[in-house]
Inverse folding.
């Protein structure tokens, strides 16, 4: 308001001074008018300078991102209006900046503890930031599978290990461009429980029907054998049929035994010593052309495991290795224990990449014909011990390794 008054006064005085000069008014009046004009111009400058100075100081604070400092009021109405507006703006900026920092910190902490793996990419699709869960889960094999996903695709992957992942390649808009990101979610326990429940229902249903039906059939066959006791050809046929019924009952019972697997009775165990005691049994499972060896490295550790169940795991793995080697005379099976890591390696026929993706699914087996009970039993026992495990064939060495890591 003062700036307008001083500006109008200066303009009026300038016009009056010009008119006096043209009309040759007295020098005294011209001098007085000139002095008033100069005073008005000085006051006008003063009214403009303070707001401009306040604006300049404000710009400096904004450039330095000093949102904590404020400008002092000058006592001049126009300048104080500018200063009040600036201080209000700085309060808003500080509040928004603090809110943004809190949100960023919250999101960073959330991503850090999230069980879901997250990887943020640049606009070209290159990964620039990952959270701990992603770094923990993203093996080279999983990275390769992620790269094969198209934009917007979500897929569930089994990668030759007991682990099952839901992988996603998605995007969001950032600065007007699509910014890709990757998600990895571990579904192992959830899917394993669902598969196990379905498997239990199937086995119970089949077992109930088979046992009831074949029990009656076996009883009838046994009675028929007694009736035709003097007819060798008939009794032989009836005996063979009864034996087939018994084999089918045993076949179904094999699945029922997996379902009824007991909970592990955990106890402190020296696995290195137990491996040495188990070696004669393992060597008796192989022919003379297969050499089975053990190697213990690292300091001895006591593991909290159920050795009876772990023995079944080791025996099943070695049995599969022996069958994979077959009749070869240069077979090698090695058991290497390093602290809580156990690796069982063989130079058998190996596992193809296609079979590796289906290894730990129920009823799947690499041997034909086979029920797939061995890997099912091993998987259930190791999961009950909360152990992590993988099975695969190295493409370079062609050695197949079953690697187990027991919790400490």
């Amino acid at each position: 308001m003062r700036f307008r008054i001083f500006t109008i006064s200066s303009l009026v005085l300038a016009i009056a001074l010009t008119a006096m000069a043209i009309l040759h008014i007295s020098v005294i009046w011209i001098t007085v008018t000139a002095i008033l004009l100069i005073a008005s111009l000085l006051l006008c400058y003063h009214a403009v300078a303070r707001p401009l100075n306040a604006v300049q100081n404000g710009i400096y604070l904004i450039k330095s991102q000093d949102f904590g400092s404020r400008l002092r009021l000058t006592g001049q109405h126009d300048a104080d209006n500018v200063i009040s507006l600036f201080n209000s703006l700085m309060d808003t900026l500080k509040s928004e900046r603090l809110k943004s920092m809190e949100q960023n910190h919250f999101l960073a902490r959330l991503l850090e503890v999230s069980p879901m793996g997250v990887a943020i990419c640049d606009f070209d699709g290159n990964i620039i930031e990952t959270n701990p869960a992603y770094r923990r889960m993203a093996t080279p094999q999983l990275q390769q599978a992620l790269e094969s996903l198209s934009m917007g695709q979500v897929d569930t992957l089994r990668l030759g290990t007991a682990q099952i992942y839901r992988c996603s390649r998605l995007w969001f808009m950032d600065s007007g461009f699509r910014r890709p990101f990757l998600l990895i979610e571990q579904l192992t326990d959830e899917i394993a429980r669902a598969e196990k429940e379905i498997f239990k229902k199937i086995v119970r249903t089949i077992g109930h029907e088979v046992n009831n039906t074949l029990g009656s059939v076996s009883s009838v066959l046994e009675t028929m054998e007694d009736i035709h006791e003097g007819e060798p050809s008939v009794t032989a046929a009836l005996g063979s049929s009864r034996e087939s019924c018994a084999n089918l009952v045993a076949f179904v019972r094999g699945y029922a035994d997996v379902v009824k697997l007991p909970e592990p009775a955990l106890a402190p165990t020296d696995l290195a010593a137990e491996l040495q005691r188990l070696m004669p049994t393992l060597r008796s499972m192989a022919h003379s052309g297969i050499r089975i060896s053990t190697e213990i490295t690292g300091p001895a550790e006591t593991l909290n495991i159920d050795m009876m169940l772990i023995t079944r795991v080791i025996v099943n793995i070695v049995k599969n290795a022996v069958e994979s080697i077959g009749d070869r005379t240069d077979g090698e099976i090695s058991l290497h224990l390093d602290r809580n890591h156990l690796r069982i390696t063989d130079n058998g026929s190996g596992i193809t990449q296609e079979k590796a993706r289906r290894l730990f699914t129920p009823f799947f087996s690499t041997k034909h014909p086979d029920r797939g009970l061995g890997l099912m039993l091993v998987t259930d026992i190791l999961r009950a011990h909360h152990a992590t495990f993988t099975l695969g064939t190295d493409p370079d060495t062609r050695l197949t390794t079953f690697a187990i890591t027991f919790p400490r």
DSSP finds eleven helices and twelve strands in the chain.
